[in-house]
Design brief:
This protein is of the alpha+beta class. The chain has one domain: Lipocalin (Beta Barrel). Helix content is 31%, strand content 39%. The chain has two helices and eight strands. It has an eight-stranded antiparallel β-sheet, covered by helices on one side. β3 and β4 form a beta hairpin. The N and C termini lie far apart (60 Å).
Length: 144
């Protein structure tokens, strides 16, 4: 009888361990999806009521976000931003860094940086990354 109780207790502990471990992996799945890819800006919304804006076709500039060992680098036209990135749970993200500013090559680049400078949330799947700021600004990325 006592052996049966010990086996049930051990089984419960194993199940609890597996459950807690799987929660940790599922929370980090989104982070892993983000950091293992390079991302190209596809479109932006300056605020929740604005229309989508797209990069200018034929532009010589790129708008690309990359991650490496807790750091990020975001090329925004002729400018770039880089620094530390922290993932806080399944949806929250924090970028801490500075910008190397040359000049705004377009309104689009300036808008991308304005949105990016206030980003606090993210969503992702296998092909897209969406960065969201508190004003409803959105940067939509596609995997490069």
């Amino acid at each position: 009888m006592e052996n049966s109780i010990n086996n049930k207790g051990m089984a419960l502990q194993i199940l609890l361990f597996v459950f807690i471990t799987s929660l940790g992996f599922s929370c980090s799945k989104e982070k892993q999806e983000v950091i293992r890819n390079d991302w190209q800006v596809e479109s932006i919304k300056v605020h929740s009521d604005s229309v989508l804006q797209f990069p200018y076709s034929g532009s010589q500039y790129i708008w690309q976000l990359t991650f490496n060992n807790g750091k990020y680098r975001f090329v925004i036209g002729s400018n770039s931003s880089s620094g530390d990135v922290k993932f806080k749970g399944k949806e929250n993200i924090e970028f801490k860094g500075g910008i190397t500013f040359v000049a705004w090559d377009s309104d689009f680049s300036e808008n991308v940086f304005t949105i990016f400078s206030k980003v606090s949330k993210y969503k992702t799947d296998e092909e897209t990354l969406i960065l969201i700021n508190d004003s409803g600004g959105i940067i939509n990325f596609k995997k490069r």
